[in-house]
Design a protein that fits this description.
32% of the residues lie in helices and 30% in strands. The protein is built from four helices and seven strands. A seven-stranded antiparallel beta sheet has the order 4-3-2-1-7-6-5, covered by helices on one side. A hairpin with a 2-residue loop joins strand 3 and strand 4. The longest helix has 16 residues. The N and C termini lie far apart (68 Å).
Length: 142
């Protein structure tokens, strides 16, 4: 009887001490994959999809050095002229903020090998027309 009670007590303690480990989300898995590569200087094609002027939606070749956009289509980066251009880290921040804000719709596709977001679609409010934004990353090299 004593051994039965002791076994029951040990089993109860072990069961209580087990922590439930939540699996990582797609966002966390891919952000970790991207960060593990340690890439902070790269070139990629970036495109925005929105109800904007045509020039804003054209594909742009973007150069990032030490985590900062330095050139867009060969020209020095300018906030106003190159509106909407994002680094990979800024896209991850945007996705995290959209999740936190509980936007109406968030659809993200990640690059299978490197983990960076290759497609991000955000519809912040179902009741507002034409405020949806899409961001696309392709042809990444470093």
């Amino acid at each position: 009887m004593k051994s039965y009670i002791l076994s029951l007590l040990v089993f109860s303690l072990l069961a209580c001490s087990e922590e439930k480990i939540e699996p990582l989300s797609d966002f966390e898995l891919n952000k970790n994959k991207w960060e593990a590569l340690g890439i902070d200087s790269y070139i990629y094609t970036f495109q925005i999809s929105c109800f904007c002027i045509r020039e804003a939606t054209l594909p742009k070749r973007v150069q990032v050095i030490n985590g900062k956009v330095v050139k867009v289509d060969g020209a020095p980066y300018d906030d106003e002229e190159h509106w909407g251009v994002q680094t990979i880290d800024q896209l991850f921040d945007m996705i995290a903020q959209a999740e936190k804000d509980k936007v109406h719709s968030l659809d993200v596709q990640y690059n299978l090998d490197k983990g960076y977001p290759s497609s991000v679609y955000i519809d912040r409010d179902e009741m507002i027309a034409d405020e949806e934004m899409g961001y696309y990353v392709s042809d990444l090299s470093y």
